[in-house]
Amino acid sequence: MRRRQLIAGGIAMSALSMTGQSMAQGTNSFYVPPEEAPHQRTFMQWPVNRRVHTDPVFLDMVQRTIAEIANSIAAFEPVTMLAAASDHPRARKLLSGDVTLWDVSTEDLWCRDAGPIFITNDRGDLAVSHIQFNGWGRKQVHRRDSQIARRVAERLGLELHPTGLVGEAGGVEQDGHGLLMAHESSWVNDNRNPGLSRDQIERRLLDAYGADRMIWSDGVWGEDITDYHIDSLARFTGPGRVLINLPDRLDEDDPFHITAADTHDALEAAGLEIEVIPEPERRRVKAGDFVASYANYYACNGAIIAAQFGDRETDRIARDALARHYPGREVVMLNVDPLGEMGGGIHCATQQMPAT
To answer: 155, 172, 180, 334: least CB-packed within 10 angstroms?
Structure first.
């Protein structure tokens, strides 16, 4: 499993600048735009590695799921699928003609974590902010995936801006208006950034994203492959606005429930506007480590691509919430259960390239 949602309580907010003006607003300063801003294209990765996907039947299901996500996004904006040339024939059979294949070798599908983080400025320049991927702290094979950001930047002729950080973009959530949130366990961790303090890592993350404020929560070390990524729990939907998954009934013996509630309260205390989406209770997959996250959606041009889990009531609540937060966009909900069984979702499998 890629991850299990375990975090332990406690959250703090540090404000380097409370002027209301993000670093992103400087003419020459690079920043990551909001995900909901216009895109040039979406990047995705084709999963192939048999050391990761040991069951060929399940690998086939995962590939079909990735193809369905790519084809759904391609109805709204261009999609580039990264795959070794030898994997193109299989991928081409499942992908629509609107999805372009590039010869960039991959192992797994998590483009949010291994793919390039695109940054731009007010002049329209584009570059890649390079946070080095190392297989979630060397927990999984990453010989090819660790090179993807560099190879995409080279193919596009873009500068690679080193951040001095090891980690994954799924481990930090950004609103594109100067605010970040993350779990310490995904960053302040010797398996990624040995010898760096939280303050040092925060400074580098703020620089990497062109932001000026950050909200931290503790997270949990060593209980899942990602050391708990934020993007399956809470997402920014605009400046100062958050969607978060919470259970309807709090189980005080469940650390997931306790921490999710603590995180919600802390985000609220930080002055953010929060809407709660309940977790599905009548889902198709009953496994305890299945990630049933409505928050792990993707905002593309004109649409929100989100998961549905077979619970009619909560699927509807999630659809309605996404429609309210992203007015004028079509909400497309897909069965992506194989990704949930691996511990991720649609957002984890995508990476946007902003329009300039």
So the answer is: 155
Q: What is the pLDDT of residues 176-209, one digit of tens each?
A: 999 999 989 999 999 999 999 999 999 999 999 9
Domain that holds residue 202: 8-14+30-354
Q: Is residue 20 part of a domain?
A: no
pTM summary value = 0.92
pLDDT digits (tens, 9 = 90+) for 130-160: 999 999 999 999 999 999 999 999 999 999 9
Distances (CA, A) of 130 to 109, 141, 169: 19, 19, 10
> Rounded distance, CA 259 to CA 6, Å?
8
Assigned domain for 21 exists? no
Between CA 30 and CA 163, with CA 355 as vertex, the angle to 5 degrees is: 30
> What does the block give as tokens for 138?
């060397």
How many CA atoms within 13 Å lie on the side-chain side of 68?
19
Predicted local confidence at residue 24, as pLDDT: 40
Is 231 part of a structural domain of the chain? Answer: yes
The type of residue at 124 is G
* Domain count within the chain: 1
Residue 25 lies in a domain: no
Q: Which residues contact 29 (CB under 8 A, 6 or more apart)?
A: 23, 121, 210
**Residue 217's CATH number:** 3.75.10.10
